[in-house]
Amino acid sequence: MTAPACHAHPEALRALHAAGHQVEAHGRWHRHALLLPPWREWAQVAWHPRAGQGGPHLYRPPYGGHSPLTRLLARLHGRQIALWDVESRDWTDRPARELAAQTLARTRPGSVILLHDGPQVTPELLDALLTGLRERGLSPVTLNALRPHRIGLREGWTRLRGSYGG
Protein backbone atom coordinates (compact mmCIF):
# COMPACT_ATOMS: atom_id res chain seq x y z
CA MET A 1 0.00 0.00 0.00
CA THR A 2 1.08 3.57 -0.51
CA ALA A 3 1.26 5.96 2.41
CA PRO A 4 -1.74 8.04 1.20
CA ALA A 5 -3.89 4.88 0.92
CA CYS A 6 -2.94 3.80 4.45
CA HIS A 7 -3.69 7.26 5.86
CA ALA A 8 -6.97 7.55 3.95
CA HIS A 9 -8.23 4.08 4.92
CA PRO A 10 -6.81 3.06 8.32
CA GLU A 11 -9.85 0.86 9.01
CA ALA A 12 -9.21 -1.09 5.79
CA LEU A 13 -5.57 -1.54 6.75
CA ARG A 14 -6.57 -2.87 10.18
CA ALA A 15 -9.13 -5.21 8.58
CA LEU A 16 -6.54 -6.57 6.15
CA HIS A 17 -4.13 -7.28 9.01
CA ALA A 18 -6.89 -8.86 11.11
CA ALA A 19 -7.89 -11.13 8.22
CA GLY A 20 -4.34 -12.45 7.92
CA HIS A 21 -3.39 -10.71 4.69
CA GLN A 22 0.19 -9.71 4.05
CA VAL A 23 0.36 -5.93 3.69
CA GLU A 24 3.56 -4.56 2.20
CA ALA A 25 4.92 -1.25 0.98
CA HIS A 26 4.27 0.32 -2.39
CA GLY A 27 6.06 3.52 -1.45
CA ARG A 28 5.37 6.81 0.19
CA TRP A 29 4.32 8.29 -3.15
CA HIS A 30 3.18 6.57 -6.32
CA ARG A 31 6.09 7.94 -8.34
CA HIS A 32 8.50 6.09 -10.60
CA ALA A 33 11.98 5.84 -9.06
CA LEU A 34 13.54 7.61 -12.04
CA LEU A 35 11.43 10.69 -11.22
CA LEU A 36 12.72 10.94 -7.65
CA PRO A 37 15.97 12.52 -6.49
CA PRO A 38 18.02 10.08 -4.39
CA TRP A 39 16.95 11.52 -1.00
CA ARG A 40 13.26 11.19 -1.98
CA GLU A 41 13.80 7.64 -3.21
CA TRP A 42 15.47 6.92 0.16
CA ALA A 43 12.27 8.09 1.90
CA GLN A 44 10.14 6.22 -0.65
CA VAL A 45 11.84 2.91 0.09
CA ALA A 46 12.07 3.55 3.86
CA TRP A 47 8.33 3.97 4.38
CA HIS A 48 6.36 0.85 5.32
CA PRO A 49 2.76 0.39 6.53
CA ARG A 50 4.01 -1.83 9.37
CA ALA A 51 6.93 0.34 10.44
CA GLY A 52 8.43 -0.81 13.71
CA GLN A 53 6.97 -4.32 13.51
CA GLY A 54 10.25 -6.02 12.60
CA GLY A 55 10.92 -8.73 10.08
CA PRO A 56 12.03 -8.37 6.50
CA HIS A 57 9.58 -6.22 4.63
CA LEU A 58 8.81 -6.23 0.95
CA TYR A 59 8.75 -3.20 -1.32
CA ARG A 60 7.03 -3.06 -4.70
CA PRO A 61 8.29 -0.02 -6.53
CA PRO A 62 5.53 1.96 -8.26
CA TYR A 63 5.31 0.83 -11.90
CA GLY A 64 7.95 -1.77 -11.02
CA GLY A 65 10.37 1.05 -11.80
CA HIS A 66 13.93 1.09 -10.61
CA SER A 67 16.61 3.73 -10.54
CA PRO A 68 20.27 2.75 -10.37
CA LEU A 69 19.90 3.09 -6.56
CA THR A 70 16.62 1.23 -5.90
CA ARG A 71 18.01 -2.18 -4.98
CA LEU A 72 20.83 -0.71 -2.90
CA LEU A 73 18.40 1.51 -0.97
CA ALA A 74 16.07 -1.45 -0.42
CA ARG A 75 18.93 -3.55 0.92
CA LEU A 76 20.05 -0.74 3.25
CA HIS A 77 16.49 -0.58 4.64
CA GLY A 78 16.26 -4.36 5.03
CA ARG A 79 13.68 -4.59 2.25
CA GLN A 80 13.34 -7.09 -0.54
CA ILE A 81 11.99 -5.98 -3.90
CA ALA A 82 8.77 -7.77 -4.85
CA LEU A 83 7.54 -7.68 -8.42
CA TRP A 84 4.90 -9.54 -10.41
CA ASP A 85 4.84 -11.73 -13.48
CA VAL A 86 1.17 -11.31 -14.46
CA GLU A 87 -0.41 -7.87 -14.91
CA SER A 88 -4.22 -7.98 -14.63
CA ARG A 89 -4.60 -4.73 -16.58
CA ASP A 90 -7.43 -3.72 -14.26
CA TRP A 91 -6.54 -0.10 -15.04
CA THR A 92 -7.97 -0.50 -18.57
CA ASP A 93 -11.64 -0.11 -19.49
CA ARG A 94 -12.14 -3.80 -20.33
CA PRO A 95 -14.82 -5.88 -18.58
CA ALA A 96 -13.85 -8.08 -15.64
CA ARG A 97 -14.64 -11.34 -17.45
CA GLU A 98 -12.30 -10.48 -20.32
CA LEU A 99 -9.53 -9.34 -17.97
CA ALA A 100 -9.89 -12.50 -15.88
CA ALA A 101 -9.62 -14.77 -18.94
CA GLN A 102 -6.48 -12.97 -20.15
CA THR A 103 -4.93 -12.94 -16.67
CA LEU A 104 -5.65 -16.61 -16.03
CA ALA A 105 -4.18 -17.55 -19.42
CA ARG A 106 -0.83 -16.09 -18.31
CA THR A 107 -0.95 -17.42 -14.73
CA ARG A 108 1.24 -20.36 -13.72
CA PRO A 109 1.85 -22.00 -10.33
CA GLY A 110 3.88 -19.48 -8.33
CA SER A 111 2.72 -16.47 -10.37
CA VAL A 112 2.31 -13.10 -8.71
CA ILE A 113 -0.74 -11.30 -10.12
CA LEU A 114 -0.78 -7.51 -10.01
CA LEU A 115 -4.11 -5.90 -9.08
CA HIS A 116 -4.80 -2.30 -8.10
CA ASP A 117 -6.91 -0.83 -5.30
CA GLY A 118 -8.53 1.95 -7.31
CA PRO A 119 -10.30 0.66 -10.43
CA GLN A 120 -13.99 -0.14 -10.07
CA VAL A 121 -13.55 -3.39 -12.00
CA THR A 122 -11.01 -4.83 -9.54
CA PRO A 123 -13.39 -6.43 -6.98
CA GLU A 124 -15.34 -8.24 -9.73
CA LEU A 125 -12.08 -9.20 -11.42
CA LEU A 126 -10.69 -10.55 -8.15
CA ASP A 127 -13.79 -12.72 -7.66
CA ALA A 128 -13.43 -14.10 -11.19
CA LEU A 129 -9.71 -14.74 -10.69
CA LEU A 130 -10.23 -16.56 -7.40
CA THR A 131 -12.90 -18.76 -9.02
CA GLY A 132 -10.67 -19.43 -12.03
CA LEU A 133 -7.68 -20.26 -9.85
CA ARG A 134 -9.73 -22.72 -7.78
CA GLU A 135 -11.02 -24.36 -10.98
CA ARG A 136 -7.39 -24.88 -12.04
CA GLY A 137 -6.47 -26.36 -8.66
CA LEU A 138 -4.46 -23.29 -7.62
CA SER A 139 -4.76 -21.42 -4.33
CA PRO A 140 -3.77 -17.85 -3.53
CA VAL A 141 -0.98 -17.48 -0.98
CA THR A 142 0.91 -14.58 0.56
CA LEU A 143 4.18 -13.46 -1.00
CA ASN A 144 6.02 -14.81 2.05
CA ALA A 145 4.79 -18.29 1.11
CA LEU A 146 6.50 -18.11 -2.30
CA ARG A 147 10.15 -18.88 -2.89
CA PRO A 148 11.85 -15.65 -3.99
CA HIS A 149 14.03 -15.73 -7.06
CA ARG A 150 16.02 -13.18 -8.98
CA ILE A 151 15.11 -12.26 -12.51
CA GLY A 152 17.63 -11.17 -15.07
CA LEU A 153 17.41 -8.34 -17.55
CA ARG A 154 15.99 -10.56 -20.32
CA GLU A 155 13.21 -11.96 -18.12
CA GLY A 156 12.49 -8.49 -16.76
CA TRP A 157 12.17 -7.09 -20.27
CA THR A 158 9.93 -9.99 -21.31
CA ARG A 159 7.68 -9.40 -18.30
CA LEU A 160 7.50 -5.69 -19.00
CA ARG A 161 6.53 -6.25 -22.63
CA GLY A 162 3.98 -8.87 -21.60
CA SER A 163 2.47 -6.59 -18.98
CA TYR A 164 2.01 -3.49 -21.06
CA GLY A 165 2.55 -4.51 -24.65
CA GLY A 166 -0.59 -6.37 -25.52
UniProtKB/TrEMBL annotation:
Residues 6-80 form the NodB homology domain. InterPro entries: Glyco_hydro/deAcase_b/a-brl, NODB_dom, Polysacc_deacetylase_ArnD. It holds the Pfam family Polysacc_deac_1. Signal peptide: none annotated. PANTHER family: 4-DEOXY-4-FORMAMIDO-L-ARABINOSE-PHOSPHOUNDECAPRENOL DEFORMYLASE ARND-RELATED, GLYCOSYL TRANSFERASE-RELATED. This is NodB homology domain-containing protein. It comes from Deinococcus depolymerans.
